[in-house]
Amino acid sequence: MRAAGKKGEKAGLAEKLAELYVLLMLGIFPLYARYGFLCDIAASFGIEWKGYYFDILSAKFGFFWKLTLLFLLLTVGALLYRRTGGKAADGAGQLPKSGKAAGASKTGVLPRCRAFWERLSGTDRFFAAFLLIHLLSMALSGYPYETWWGSLGRNMGVLMWLLLFGAYCMLTRLYRFRRWHLSVFLASMLLLELWGMTDFFHRDLFGFFREVEDWGAQQTFASSIGNINSYTALTGFAFSLSAVLFILESDWRARLLPFLGTAIGAAATIMGMSDNAVLSMGTALAAIPLLLLRTRDELRRYLLVLAVFFAAMRLSGWVTTLGLYLQAQEGDMGLLLRIGRTALSGYLAGGLLLLSLGLSAMEHFRGGDGQRTADKGDPLLRLLRRMLWVLLLIGPAAVIFVLWDANRGGHPALWAPYRGFLIFNRSWGTGRGLAWSMALDYFFREMPLWQKLLGYGPETYYIITMDHFRALMNAYGYGMFDNAHNEYLNLLLTVGLSGMLSYLGMLLCTIRQLLRNRAAASRAAAIALCAYSVQALVNFAVPFVLPLVLLVSWICLRAREG
Predict the structure, then answer these.
(1) Same domain, yes or no, for 365 and 467?
(2) Residue 555 is inside which H or E element, if any?
(3) Has residue 358 been placed in a domain?
(4) How far is Cα of residue 513 from the mean position of the Cα atoms in its chain?
(5) Distances (CA, A) of 533 to 231, 232, 276, 496, 505
(6) Residues 426 and 554 in one domain
(7) Is residue 489 part of a domain?
(8) Distance from the CA of 463 to the CA of which of 19, 190, 520, 546 falls in 20 to 30 A?
(9) How many other CB atoms sit within 10 Å of the CB of residue 429?
(10) Which pLDDT value is given to residue 36?
């Protein structure tokens, strides 16, 4: 059987529906919100929308689940019509076979089940297990409505994962990869990031804050995403994707939009002032040379990406010293902006730019084409990789030492300026220390074994904390927590150890599949997904960031080299 999307194969209706769904999700969904003029139009028809930043979560969740459900129903209808006699592409839309199952003709229940199992990828199996655990956890929770909708959390309930699983099946079986679809996503993200940068300067272009009296909300909300933690999670993903595409694309025209995405994405993420950006951007910039660089041309462009990153950091930090009316305030601006206020980031940007230009000049005068790889004897690339592996071994040890010395050592004055980042207690990370301690305390001390395996119920962290830790939260000045502010810890508590491990397995298998594909888009998605997965250690999943991250990763599974 032939999988949809092969060269020369005609697309049927189901394949076209998958492409249209991708375009709507990647082009419209990031920017969707209930703008003021939409609220006014709705009011003229007697529909009351509060709009603006008050309902970004519900508005985007509604857009996602309604659009995804509609396209899944239309796709199923198209496939049923094809199966019952409608004319369509020869073999298009049928599930591809792989491995031993290819060409196998087996009868009987057990052989067919075995053949079906062999056809599934690792991502298929882990995702199916993750969804099954969600259903079991919901059935055992005693909160069917809350766990179905995720209404007491961030709407990442059973419905969300059912729809994501349906979208995954549709895209990995029917979608025909188009490189320009990624360009649509990058262009949409550029608009979103430019909007977020205007919020940094308190421009409020669309009047989203005109009914917001809470100063804290204005300081921590940006663009069409809202909360800066979610905003920088998405912009960090887009930055990582753009950077790798710029480095790996062979055609200079294909590198133009990714370069803009790298430069503007770096500035927008830094101006987002959330420290999860340190994890996401740091992961991407560290993983690129370790996993991807093969030629001197790629190394030269990687050095240029680093120069752009530090230049964006320096420019953003410099702006905060001008006395302008900005979101950034002393104590709230984040680590990257703080570093950007020093001259170090500027020197690094200049030095890296000179290195990139020097490498280009050296290749030009030597008459090299810049395409010799480390495997073919390039000593520079071999040396770089060895140095990076040494740093990879030394770096974690240095981090552990600094954390130990800051928390248990005898040099409190040395680390005092960075106590907000290095000193771990219940106030660390804007209450993350408290949220994590409550989660771990309840998991190890209160949960029976079956709940440790299957969890309390999807999106029930709010119920746990309000039932068991209300006095503790009040003592620390927090009225409520609806999420553990750590995706994996939140899953551990709500869908248990089995659910968390299934989710990790799904992510790791997706990254492995993407890295095995030599196409630039696939490898870019792998690094971007790594970046998102690492920052998820201090962040939470929301229905307008995680679906975009997963959808981009899934369509890039369909990319082919060349």
Answers:
(1) no
(2) helix 546-556
(3) yes
(4) 17
(5) 15, 13, 11, 19, 12
(6) no
(7) no
(8) 546
(9) 19
(10) 65
